[in-house]
């Protein structure tokens, strides 16, 4: 117990330096915790997606090249397909917002067959089907903007050269993640045709609900084979593989995070090692006195290493708690944009364990030097 008091006293002897070291380690591990939290949330999203038996049909040239609307009926006729809908991004701006929320043109007749986990009142679904200017939104999006059934929603065209004037006909209950605003693709296509826009007649991509997960591998091959000799050949992926395409577009996220983490850890070891080296230099005569009264080299080594680990673990606890706090605050402040998942407890444990390892490596050289310098030379120095 007395050694613990000694370690605690020395760790906080120079309070400013200790606080700065704790803050440096904590802030870096906080960012690392958040990065791994986002990475884990993406893995969790893809894992949950697999249970819905959906596949995505897109152009062989990529999703930036839309498929013709005629492909949708052809896909529906293929054995193993339960339902299929077009899915076309609009990208309009609402009121004074500068960033568009998720909004797509689709087919009201089959939309909730493909996304069967979403729930909507039958009367509201029929109202949407009967109104060409109608739309439906997820409850998160409706709550964020204070929308109610019957509200008029005007989306200002950015990609397309005209606006959409929509009427909210239904608010559906989301399963997990915030859902988009969905309107009739026919409404968008009519506007494009009237303007003579070459983008008319397109479906964007096609979302498919398979009859079961067992048929997905053969169904993807069957769909692509069906359009192999057409002017618009397809590439069909499972929904989780399609999500991975977006991840690959912005690079190997996991690789980036791992490289950043390694750089952070290396920097933290240098910061903590420098702090411990300064602390040991300031206490040269004190360490020499301890050796003179009987402390062994291993005893000195253990004291300095424990002090280094203690400071680093304090920083790790601070960083992990701060990361969890920011993650929670982000979910409260941005419910529609923030990942709908918790940071796994394993990630938090790794963060604290990592801080202990940083302290251990940072303290090796200073503690070894303290354990091996001469008692006589140490007593000659002025603290």
Number of strands: 11
Shape: elongated
Q: Strand content of the residues, in percent? A: 15-25%
Based on the structure, what is the oligomeric state of the protein chains?
Answer: single chain
Distance between the termini: 26 Å
| Largest sheet features | 11 strands, mixed
Radius of gyration of CA atoms, rounded to a whole number: 30 Å
Overall number of domains: 2
Helicity, in percent? 55-70%
Structural class: alpha+beta
Give a structural overview.
The mean pLDDT is 80. Strands 1, 2, 3, 4, 5, 6, 7, 8, 9, 10 and 11 form an eleven-stranded mixed sheet that branches. The protein has helices at residues 2-11, 15-49, 70-76, 111-114, 122-130, 139-145, 185-194, 216-226, 239-249, 253-282, 284-292, 297-333, 345-372, 375-380; strands at 54-59, 67-68, 81-89, 93-94, 103-106, 134-138, 152-156, 164-172, 181-184, 202-210, 234-238. It has 14 helices and eleven strands. By secondary structure, it is α+β, with helices and mostly antiparallel strands. It folds into two domains: 2-46 and 252-380, no CATH class; 61-232, no CATH class. A hairpin with a 7-residue loop joins strand 7 and strand 8. The chain is elongated, with a radius of gyration of 30 Å.
């Amino acid at each position: 117990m007395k050694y613990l008091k000694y370690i605690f006293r020395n760790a906080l002897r120079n309070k400013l330096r200790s606080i700065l070291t704790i803050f440096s380690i904590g802030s870096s591990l906080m960012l690392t915790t958040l990065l791994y939290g986002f990475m884990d949330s993406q893995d969790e999203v893809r894992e949950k997606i697999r249970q819905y038996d959906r596949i995505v049909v897109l152009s062989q040239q990529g999703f930036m090249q839309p498929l013709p609307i005629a492909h949708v009926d052809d896909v529906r006729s293929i054995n193993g397909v339960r339902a299929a809908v077009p899915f076309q991004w609009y990208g309009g701006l609402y009121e004074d917002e500068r960033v568009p929320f998720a909004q797509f043109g689709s087919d009201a007749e089959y939309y909730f067959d493909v996304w069967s986990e979403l729930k909507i009142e039958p009367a509201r679904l029929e109202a949407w089907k009967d109104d060409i200017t109608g739309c439906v939104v997820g409850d998160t999006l409706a709550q964020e903007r204070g929308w109610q059934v019957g509200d008029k929603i005007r989306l200002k065209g950015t990609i397309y050269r005209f606006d959409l004037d929509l009427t909210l006909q239904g608010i559906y209950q989301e399963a997990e993640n915030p859902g988009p605003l969905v309107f009739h693709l026919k409404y968008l296509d009519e506007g494009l045709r009237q303007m003579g826009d070459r983008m008319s007649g397109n479906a964007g991509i096609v979302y498919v609900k398979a009859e079961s997960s067992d048929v997905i591998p053969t169904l993807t091959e069957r769909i692509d084979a069906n359009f192999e000799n057409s002017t618009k050949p397809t590439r069909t992926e499972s929904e989780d593989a399609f999500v991975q395409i977006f991840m690959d577009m912005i690079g190997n996220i996991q690789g980036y995070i791992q490289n950043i983490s390694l750089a952070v850890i290396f920097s933290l070891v240098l910061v903590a090692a420098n702090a411990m080296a300064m602390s040991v230099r300031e206490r040269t005569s004190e360490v020499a006195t301890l050796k003179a009264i009987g402390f062994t080299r291993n005893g000195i080594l253990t004291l300095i290493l424990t002090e280094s680990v203690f400071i680093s673990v304090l920083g790790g606890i601070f960083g992990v708690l701060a990361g969890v706090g920011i993650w929670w605050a982000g979910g409260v402040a941005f419910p529609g944009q923030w990942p709908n998942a918790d940071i796994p407890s394993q990630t938090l444990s790794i963060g604290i364990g990592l801080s202990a390892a940083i302290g251990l490596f940072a303290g090796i050289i200073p503690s070894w030097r303290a354990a091996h310098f001469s008692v006589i030379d140490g007593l000659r120095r002025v603290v």
